[in-house]
Amino acid sequence: MAPFHHELTFRRFALRSALPIAVAILLATTFLVGPFGFAAEALVFWLLLRRL
Amino acid sequence: MVVLAFILAFALWLNPELAGLQTPLRKLVFVATAAPLLGWIAGINIGVNYHNHTHRPLFKSARLNTWFERLWTPFGAWPAKWWAHYHVNVHHARLMTPGPGGDWTVRQKKPDGEYESCLRYQLRIWPWRTLQNFPREIRAGHFPARTAVLELIWFAPLYAIPFLIDPLMGLWLWLLPHWLANTMTMGRGMYIQHAECEPWLEDKTQPHSADFPVPAFNLTMFNIGYHTEHHNQPGLHWAELPAAAEARER
Questions:
Q1: Which pTM value belongs to this model?
Q2: For the residues of B185-247, what is the DSSP string, one character each?
């Protein structure tokens, strides 16, 4: 049996899925905050990502 | 998650009262925000995730892989086997080879002999250069006509669904994100991974790929930044790329 690889943990899997999860959450919040709130959230998200 | 994001975007568009999209201005703001986000994740979905599958299929069953692919790649505006041919048989097999029958997936020389800019490449590669070259691939026997037609038959009805539900929704929240996915996300990625590596064609001691060993990038992008190693060993599992790159450098 092959040794367990550290890249294949659930934590790493969640990290690799973080971007589409974030986009889905941003879209879902549009029902609550409307299109202008969605645009503001996306801008904040983009600025946060640029700091990484 | 990519599928869910598209479904959410469609649900918002189709329920304007609930989503606050009653006026053209509100719809414009929504599309201007949603399309780049959808394009970004759709580009990664094909250019990284499906990409890994073309080198190392997810399932042992060939039939299961084929059907999974057919439901997967319409979310990037590609018939499955078309992208696999584009990437594996054109890009990997003919890496940066110039001229007709060469690697038309990377940057090309302009009529004046200079290499094209990133923006020029991005605006041409999808769908224009792709549509121009696939008939040549088929005529030359590199891509079986039967496969091309069969995959198109499965792709076209699936891709048409959003347009049939609402043509404007199909245009703004399906086709536009896919244009962005293919030109801005995948197009830019393809360009920077091999631009200025053309000297390798004449001198194999030169690099054929640009590496991006940025931890945050590789943590979220399946180590695609270890691009030299990926081209050296395309079948190597993405999780093994950093160790393989380190071993090569030693």
A1: 0.91
A2: IHHHHHHHHHTT-GGGGT-TTS-SS-----HHHHHHTTTTT-HHHHHHSTTS-GGGHHHHHHH
